[in-house]
Amino acid sequence: MRVKMKLVLSRGLVWIGIARLRSNPHMNDITADSAAEGARPVLDVPARALLERIPQSPGVYRMLDADGTVLYVGKAKNLKRRVSSYFSRALTRRLQVMVSQIADIEVTVTRTEGEALLLESNLIKSLRPRFNVLLRDDKSYPFIYLSTQDDFPRLAFYRGPRKSKGRLFGPYPSAWAVRETLQLLQKLFPVRQCEDSFFNNRSRPCLQYQIKRCSGPCVGLVSREEYAEDVAHTIQFLDGRAEEAIADLGRSMEQAAAALEFERAAVLRDQIATLSRIQQRQYVSGEGGDLDIIACAQAGGTSCVQVFFIRAGRNLGNKAFFPKTPDETDDATLLAGFLAQFYADKQIPPELVVSVEPEERELLETALSQRAERRVHIKWRVRAERARWLEMARGNAEVALKSRLGSQAGYGRRIEALRDALDLPERPQRMECFDISHTQGERTVASCVVFDGEGPRKSDYRRFNIEGITPGDDYAALHQALTRRYTRVKQGEYPIPDILFIDGGRGQIRSVGDALQELGIAGVQVVGISKGPDRRPGTELLWLLDVESPLILPSDSPAMHLVEQIRDEAHRFAITGHRQRRAKARTTSTLEGLAGIGPRRRQRLLKQFGGIRGLARAGVEDIACVDGIGRQLAQQIYDAFHEEAAGP
Predict the structure, then answer these.
(1) Domain holding 518: CATH number?
(2) What's a GO biological-process term for it (predicted)?
(3) What is the mean pLDDT of the chain?
(4) Per mean pLDDT, which range of 65-74, 149-158, 600-609 is the poorest?
(5) Other CB atoms closer than 10 Å to residue 498's CB: what's the count?
(6) Spatial contact of 76 and 40, defined as CB atoms under 8 Å apart
(7) Is 255 or 210 the better-scoring residue by pLDDT?
(8) How far apart are CA 605 and CA 8, in angstroms?
(9) d(CA 382, CA 295)
(10) What is the span of the domain harbouring residue 499?
(11) Does residue 134 belong to any structural domain of this protein?
(12) Which of 577, 220, 594 has the alpha carbon at shortest distance from 434?
């Protein structure tokens, strides 16, 4: 056994020493029976002497097996005392099993226990040790983005790193919650939601203006002052200051009525009524700030944590999480592990209301406060309205857990049925499926989705933009995608799947077989999925490599249901990526890439010719007649459109 020690400084890691410990033969003899009896693993004398080299400092330790796989990551106020305790006291069954597999220990020394907690949560998320509480939270949370730096700001759905320009509101628990809020805002305050490329190239108002969802700033149908008022009211609403917006609208309504502008007064009256209804539906009674309400439930070896997001007193929605937990994990340990990992890379509200006191609550509060750069409180003894919300969160967690257990049982039966149908020696642990999507060969995208023993593993999904092939050649696209994916598999970035599904028939799986053979990958069961004779769902044919006849499963077979689920997910992921790529290409104006064409000249050109199509049909002389466009620039514009039209 070896012990590695690092020292965490403010700007990185510095090695301070390495000690090697001889593996203890007694440790590998620990059995489940001895664990049940509370047996103690005993270190031999040389190992004990080397353990003395571990400092009595705060830090993080990592337990590794003989293959170098991390079994467990933990933090300690005193590393020497904590690591030694695994070999000097009676342990639970779970810890006995873990200790019996330990071959190496790595130690990272930190300045404080709070730093150790933050480092521990980051390592758990990246290394995913099997004996830790693991949160499978693959996606960042969506926000509403307002481009306040623009003359006419736009509202948009946003997911990704925080930007320096503009304002972000949220986070929201789901994309659906963001889109619902954006739809409400369109009805309340007509702030544009179109892309800048679309906005900059308009010569007449679009459909959103016609249905009164936008005030038409692209063509000057609203002044900057009026538009700024709508933006200000939007910010008030998203900041949870709807009362201020209602008061402002009320004053404007009275002024409009006094000036005999009854039509405008009626519009303002309707806005006030809509805002009031939304406020009654979305606001949490008795709450006025930012907080998360968190409750957990456990049963049948599965854990569920339910989180309600409250921002500026508004209930933005809730979401259920199902962290992977070792056996014998109590609620306090579960919540401690969840909070440390969940808020490792997310915005932390000033207050967290939880169903039970998490393990080492004070340390967790300190670490979260340090990360948020302000005080964060964790409360579990609450009354009145918060107690009712906490009880509702607890009930939601129990309902989600029951649903998950039922779903897992059904999913397990489908995997076993697939194993029997394909006559596999073992239950498949990892399945991948590829699909190709394009429109007549344009912007081809290949998708790869991954399913494991628990269901979709979305963090391992990948898309591939296919280039350099004959448009519409699905075989070549599939070959390129597989080569790119499994080159990385050969490099050890991903495990080799047990089953590789392909949306296609005999020709596709032969192409797949050639690609895998070139890469030297063997032992993968390749299955092609083609439509049946009548092309109805449930009548698909399954094609196997080197087998001439297809495998036909009954339409009500659990194995067929699983195959259809995986195939449909690959198709959804591929077509979504293709549409995004195609839309991005088609919304980019030819004018935007030309030197010497700024917003004003672009606006003049589009207004003169009635849009891009009219400009594309115009001759050089006609273009040169536009104010500010000379002969040379007109020729460049003409060439740009006609070179594009002549392209492949």
Answers:
(1) 3.30.420.340
(2) nucleotide-excision repair
(3) 79
(4) 600-609
(5) 20
(6) no
(7) 210
(8) 60
(9) 13
(10) 430-578
(11) no
(12) 577
